[in-house]
Amino acid sequence: MANQQNELVKLLADLEEEAVLDLVRRRVAAGDDPLQLIEECNAGMRQVGERYEQRQYFLAGLIMAGEIFREVVEIAQPVLENQVTRQVSGRVLLGTVQGDIHDLGKDMVGMLLTCHGFTVIDLGVDVPPAEFVEQVSKLKPDIVGLSGVLTASYERMRETVSLLREKARQDRRSFPIIIGGGMIDDQICHYVGADHWVADAMGGVHLCQKLMAHDNG
Ligand code: B12
Questions:
Q1: What is the pLDDT of residue 90?
Q2: What does the DSSP 8-state code read for residue 183?
Q3: Which of 28, 94, 123, 165 has its CB surrounded by the most CB atoms within 10 Å?
Q4: What are the start-end ranges of the E strands in 67-139?
């Protein structure tokens, strides 16, 4: 199994589209956990990023990696949807912050939250801070989730959080703001002013479940 795992990471890092999809299909058919497969592909994506930084890959490599990852998620999604029990949970407003068009991570979180009974309102990518504020006022979600993987996104997240807090104060409402995306850590969360951060999509689901239980308890 360890070899197979390394194989998937390596195949994705090498952008071997057909071989990746073939291996994923075989492992799904053999009963492997689809989240584990996605996690391995994520490790492959990080290697693609490193190769891009080292100029071994160019933009086309990032685009290709994005396409392969999306195809992997398409294979895994039906299995994931069958695995989970749907209970009615809360409403989560999601979006990738302004200036950032990376959406694979956000979509992954959205899909898993939906599988776990959350109603997800997805504002898409490159979402200006004012748009988040407007939609939060209109849709009144229980939780707001911001996604961003570029270093430049942290400034936009900070601005978005600040505007959301101001509006929440005016409306006498409160809702937790969580952030996620590649390189986010405690320090960035503190800088941005968000309430929580998570490193992976399933961690996001567990956090949202905890926040809703707290809300209702
Ligand atoms: C694929 C990719 C692209 C694709 C994206 C396709 C798409 N539809 O999303 C494309 C080609 C569009 C792209 C473009 C660019 N990219 Co790019 N890209 C990547 C790459 C290789 C993978 C990102 C990815 O999708 N990972 C898989 C997902 C599933 O992981 P994730 O996003 O981290 O999400 C997980 C968690 O973080 C979490 N999560 C994410 N969001 C949220 C939100 C919430 C609420 C929660 C709870 C959890 C959560 O859940 C997810 C699943 O576990 C990364 C490398 C890397 N290390 O990340 C570079 C990377 C992010 N890109 C980079 C760069 C530089 C660019 C470009 C500027 C390149 C260019 N010259 O144009 C442009 C920027 C465009 C823009 N304005 O946004 C740099 C960023 C460097 C930096 N520090 O800012 C990276 C790190 C590569 C590198 N090492 O240099 N890219």
A1: 93
A2: T
A3: 94
A4: 91-96, 119-122
| Most confident range, picked from 17-21, 34-38, 87-91 | 17-21
Percent of the chain at pLDDT > 70 equals 94
The count of residues in the chain is 217
The residue written with tokens 């905890």 in the block is 210
Q: 93 pairs with which residues across the strands?
A: 121, 144
**How do 143-147 and 119-122 pair as beta strands?**
unpaired
Exposed, middle or buried: residue 83 (CB in 10 Å: 0-12, 13-18, 19+)?
exposed
Distance between Cα 102 and ligand 1 center (Å): 5
Nearest CA residue ID for atom 32, ligand 1:
105
Using pLDDT thresholds of 50, 70 and 90, give the confidence band for residue 1. very low
Vertex 73, ends 68 and 75: CA angle to 5°? Answer: 95
CB distance 51 to ligand 1 below 6 Å: no
Mutation test residue for ligand 1: of 102, 120, 123, 183, the one with most atoms within 8 Å of CB: 102
In angstroms, rounded to a whole number, what is the distance separating the alpha carbons of residues 174 and 165? 8
Please give the number of the atom of ligand 1 that sits closest to the Cα of 48.
21
